[in-house]
Amino acid sequence: MTCPDCAARYEIPPDLAARLPARLRCARCGAEWHQDAPAIQPPEPAVPAETVPENAPEPAAEPAVGLMPAGVVGIPPSPAIGTPPVAVAAVPPEPISPASPVSARRIAVAPAPETVRLLWLASIGVLVVLIALAIGFRGAIIHAWPPSLRLYRALGLAR
What we know:
The protein is mostly helical. It folds into two domains: about 1-40 and about 65-95, no CATH class; about 115-155. The protein has helices at about 15, 115-135, 140-145, 150-155, and strands at about 20-25, 30-35. A two-stranded antiparallel ribbon has the order 1-2. The longest helix is centred in the last third of the chain and has 24 residues, at about 115-135. The protein starts with 13 loop residues before the first helix and ends in a 5-residue tail after the last helix.
């Protein structure tokens, strides 16, 4: 599959492909799109094995080069160009209910401005009440904690 915005290519494991159609999100650019189920293709005919003489030297193995988009983790790379396809037995996908969830990340949502304003007012209200209590009960506070007398004297509130 390919992201329609940044053209990042992804290989979808068969167990996740069975859950398509679904809404997908690109790991590179964050774009979201609706992906339909891929069309089922008929299996390719098996290629006969080549006969190799017993004393023939083994061909040098070329390293497979697979390109993956930056930041994509856990998705196997595409096979290198020129690599012959591997024959895989066709297994029909298990039926799933439409309510089966496809894994997705939660997006943090900022609170509404009215909520933020209300939280600020509540915080200021708590501070006002604490200051009023500290002034109203300053005699008891000074008696219970004598070093607080210096603070009350500095504020001009000592008795």
